[in-house]
Write a structure and sequence with these properties.
There is one protein chain. By secondary structure, the chain is α/β, with parallel strands linked by helices. It has two domains: 4-114 and 250-306, Periplasmic binding protein-like II (D-Maltodextrin-Binding Protein, domain 2, 3-Layer(aba) Sandwich); 117-246, 3-Layer(aba) Sandwich (D-Maltodextrin-Binding Protein, domain 2), CATH 3.40.190.10. The protein has 13 helices and 14 strands. Strands 1-2-4-3-5-14-6 form a seven-stranded mixed β-sheet. The longest helix is centred in the C-terminal third of the chain and has 16 residues, at 291-306. It is elongated and about 60 Å long. The protein starts with a strand and ends in an 8-residue tail after the last helix. It is found in: Cell membrane.
Length: 314
C-alpha cells in the first residue's frame, strides 16, 4: 500500500514520502529500507512519478524526496543527510571538492533530457525568436525596453523573470547565456510563480524547464532560439532528445556510492529508475534519453553494486 506524507511549509521546501511496496534491504540486512533524496525542483516531478510506480511493488522501501533546488540538494548531499541528489546541471568543482574533503564518493546518472524554454506573455505579438545575445541583453539589464532589443519592437519596459540562485536552471542559464555573469531579473524560488508572472505581465519574459511550458502552453507563448550557427531552434521532444535545441540539457541523479552499495532498497530504486527508460520523465513533461544512454547507465550501476570500485564517476 502506498503512503503519502508531505513535509515542509512551502511547495519548494516540501518532501514527498512514499512507502514503496516490495522488498529492499537496508545496510543492516533487515528487510525494508529508507532512501532519502533532495535537490532540483525540475527533476522533482520525475522522481514523484517514479515513486508512484515503484510503490506498487515495493512496500517495505520508503523513499523520500525534497525539492530545495539543485544547490540546496547538493548541500544536504555533502552534509551526508541524503542518499541521492537530483540536479538540473552538472555538479560544480567546488561541490566536488567538498565531497572529496569529506571522503564521500559519488556517481552521476543521467535520467532524462530537458530543454530550458523561453516564454513571453500570450498577448506578445512581436517576439517570435531571440538570439542568445539578445537574451543576454535582456537578462543583464542592458536592454530595458523591447525597443532596446530590436528597433522595430515597441518602446515598452521589459519585465524579466528568473529562477533564483538555488536552482540549477539559474546556473545553466547563467553559463549558457550570460557567460557566467549575474542575472538581473525578478527572481523566485518557485517556478510556478515565474510562469504566473509571465502570464500576468504583457511585457513579461521568463525561462524554465520544458515541462513547465508544456503544462502551461495555453497561457504562454514559446520563443524560438538561434544557436551559435544562426540556426533557429525550438524545444520539441525530438530536438531536446538529440540536443539540437539550443538550450537542451541532461537531468541528473547523483548517488552516494557507499550508501548505494550498503542499501538494497536504494539499489532496487536506482535499478527501477533506469529500467523505466524515461517513461516517467515523459509523463512528467520531459524527454527520455536515447535507449543507448539507459543501457550505459545500467552498466554503470551494475559495476558499482556488483563489485567494489574505488573509482569515482563524474
Amino acid at each position: 500500500m502506498k503512503k503519502w506524507q508531505l513535509f515542509g511549509t512551502t511547495v519548494v521546501g516540501a518532501s514527498l514520502l512514499l512507502g514503496a511496496c516490495g522488498g529492499g534491504n537496508s545496510g543492516s540486512g533487515e528487510e525494508g529500507g529508507e532512501v532519502k533524496g533532495d535537490g532540483s525542483s525540475t527533476v522533482g516531478p520525475i522522481i514523484e512519478k517514479l515513486n508512484e510506480k515503484f510503490a506498487k511493488d515495493n512496500s517495505d522501501v520508503t523513499v523520500s524526496n525534497g525539492t530545495s533546488g539543485t544547490g540546496g540538494g547538493f548541500e544536504k548531499f555533502i552534509a551526508g543527510n541524503t542518499d541521492f541528489s537530483n540536479a538540473s546541471r552538472p555538479i560544480k568543482d567546488e561541490e566536488k571538492k567538498k565531497l572529496d574533503d569529506k571522503g564521500i564518493k559519488y556517481d552521476e546518472f543521467k535520467i532524462a533530457q530537458d530543454g530550458v524554454t523561453i516564454a513571453v506573455n500570450k498577448e506578445n505579438d512581436f517576439v517570435d525568436e531571440l538570439t542568445k545575445e539578445q537574451l543576454k541583453d535582456i537578462y543583464s539589464g542592458e536592454a530595458k525596453t523591447w525597443e532596446d532589443v530590436n528597433s522595430e519592437w515597441p518602446d515598452k519596459e521589459i519585465k524579466a523573470f528568473s529562477p533564483d540562485q538555488s536552482h540549477g536552471t539559474y546556473d545553466f542559464f547563467s553559463e549558457e547565456i550570460m557567460d557566467k555573469g549575474d542575472i538581473k531579473a525578478e527572481k523566485n524560488a518557485d517556478t510556478n510563480v515565474i510562469v504566473q508572472s509571465v502570464e500576468k505581465n504583457n511585457e513579461g519574459i521568463g525561462y524554465f524547464g520544458y515541462n513547465f511550458y508544456t503544462q502551461n502552453k495555453d497561457k504562454l507563448k514559446e520563443v524560438k532560439i538561434k544557436d551559435e550557427d544562426d540556426n533557429l531552434t525550438e524545444p520539441t521532444k525530438k530536438t531536446i532528445q538529440d540536443g539540437s535545441y539550443a538550450l537542451s540539457r541532461p537531468l541528473y541523479i547523483y548517488t552516494n556510492e557507499k550508501k548505494l552499495k550498503d542499501n538494497k532498497g536504494f539499489q532496487d530504486f536506482m535499478k527501477f529508475i533506469i529500467e523505466d527508460k524515461g517513461k516517467s520523465a515523459e509523463s512528467a513533461g520531459f524527454v527520455a534519453l536515447p535507449d543507448k544512454d539507459y543501457k550505459d547507465q545500467e552498466s554503470k550501476l551494475n559495476d558499482i553494486i556488483g563489485k567494489d570500485s574505488d573509482k569515482k564517476e563524474e
